[in-house]
């Protein structure tokens, strides 16, 4: 469990994973050396990872789907095989209508169909129920709305893409280290990184291990909507605990993800989503075991 100071550090790192030790010391009222030591300890213990989160469109991802797998028998072996697919960003064993849920992120519709075929071929899978995402209103670990159709992604050259790949691996990599890897001067590299951050091509954040927070409860909820879908999705994205919102078609009109420190808070969040004006039906599931959660993409680093 994190102590009060570490928890405050983590909140700042989640907001800005590249925040300086000097700024952390000012915000938390501790010395710069203490801030540095605490951050390094969190990283060395694996309780926090500082990574660059690249929006799907920037990485060339235009097809996203939530797939519920109808499984005959135990779900864990199926979840493990689904997690082994490079295309899956999230896989969990759930307490819900289906025992395994996966999110698939790929370049286009043709690639998505190939992934559906691969998931159907996993031993024990009897069938799939698919929610095809039309727009990511709020993506996992994103600080703000970041839609798949929110406009064209920023133009990137080869050096930009390598920087994004490197920041995915280590969001706090120094400008000097990044410059050495991409073969540019430190000032030029610094300018590129700052531009990528400003344009929303990457968000550097702290990912916290569940064990460091104590008990973590996570759930999803699918919504049927009367009338326009977008206002319901936007309202859901502002609710406490909601970390993911997508509109789409298939089983639901909107799918939301929620995180909470305990089951009581999780229930409060689910009830708030269900009570939104325009929601006509809902179906929820609890993530019993998150087998995979990775939002890194195949970007060059060399």
Structure description:
With 302 residues, this protein is an alpha+beta fold. It has a domain at 4-45: Arc Repressor Mutant, subunit A (Orthogonal Bundle), CATH 1.10.10. 36% of the residues lie in helices and 30% in strands. Strands 2-4-3-10-7-9-8-5 form an eight-stranded antiparallel beta barrel, surrounded by four helices. Mean pLDDT is 91; it is low at 145-149.
What does this entry show, briefly?
The protein is 36% helix and 30% strand. The chain has 302 residues and is an alpha+beta fold. A hairpin with a 4-residue loop joins β3 (88-95) and β4 (100-106).
The CATH class of the domain at 4-45 turns out to be Mainly Alpha
Tell me the strand percentage band. Answer: 25-35%
Report the CATH superfamily of the domain at 4-45.
Winged helix-like DNA-binding domain superfamily/Winged helix DNA-binding domain
Annotated CATH architecture of the domain at 4-45: Orthogonal Bundle
Distance between the termini: 37 Å
C-alpha Rg (nearest Å):
20 Å
Order of helices and strands: HHHEEHEEHEHHHEHEHEEHE
Point out poorly predicted stretches: 145-149
Task: Name the average pLDDT.
Answer: 91
Secondary structure layout:
Layout: H1 4-15, H2 21-28, H3 32-44, E1 48-53, E2 63-71, H4 76-83, E3 88-95, E4 100-106, H5 109-120, E5 125-138, H6 158-169, H7 175-182, H8 186-198, E6 203-208, H9 210-213, E7 217-225, H10 230-237, E8 242-250, E9 254-260, H11 263-274, E10 279-293
Antiparallel strand pairs: 1-6, 2-4, 2-5, 3-4, 3-10, 5-8, 7-9, 7-10, 8-9
Helix pairs in contact: 2-3, 7-8
